[in-house]
Amino acid sequence: MRTATYYDILRVSRQAAPESVRSAYRKLAQRYHPDKLQGHDDAARVMAALNEAYAVLSDPHKRALYDRSIAGAQARAAAARRVAVQPRLREPAWPWWLLFATIAFAMAAIGIVAYRMIFPAVTVAAIHAPKVVSK
């Protein structure tokens, strides 16, 4: 959404000369003056906006500051649009390498348990003990 600038209120371009700003203000002030538009509640509000716009645009120093603020606002808006347009990459919920490691660990643990169930553990003492031959 674009907000109206003082240039929009006075209906002049940003490159308008001070004389054209003054003539535009005078035309609009005569047209929307509250004394001419009695009974209209918006007349005072419109006239206040015209006075504020003319006060800024008629002073060269205030106008230069205002032009810089407009340029800064446009630059920030353009930067915000560029950021909004860039797609965001979604991080995977579970990294593939961690998933692979988890599955490999689980299979190894299950394999060790199955191996020990099939082949019961032989103690080191049983291996080195002399065999007793019974008669």
Q: What key attributes describe this structure?
A:
Helix Hairpins; 135 residues; 67% helix; mainly alpha; rod-shaped
Could you characterize what this model shows?
With 135 residues, the protein is mostly helical. The chain has two domains: 6-85, Helix Hairpins; 96-128. Helices cover 67% and strands 0% of the residues. The mean pLDDT is 84.
List the helices and strands and how they pair.
Layout: H1 6-10, H2 18-32, H3 42-58, H4 60-85, H5 96-118, H6 124-128
Helix pairs in contact: 2-3, 3-4
Quick gist of this model?
By secondary structure, the chain is mostly helical.
- Class computed from helices, strands and strand pairing: mainly alpha
What is the number of E strands? Answer: 0
**What about the largest sheet?**
none
- CATH homologous superfamily heading of the largest domain: DnaJ domain
What's the CATH first level of the largest domain? Mainly Alpha
Query: What low-confidence regions span 5 or more consecutive residues with pLDDT below 50?
Result: none
Q: How many H/I helical runs?
A: 6
Q: Kindly report the average pLDDT value.
A: 84
> Percentage of helical residues?
55-70%
The coarse silhouette is rod-shaped
Beta-strand residue fraction: under 5%
Distance between the termini: 105 Å
Assembly status: single chain
| Rg estimate, integer Å | 42 Å
**Whole-number total of structural domains:** 2
Second-tier CATH architecture of the largest domain = Orthogonal Bundle
In sequence order, what are the helices and strands, one letter per element? HHHHHH
CATH topology of the largest domain: Helix Hairpins
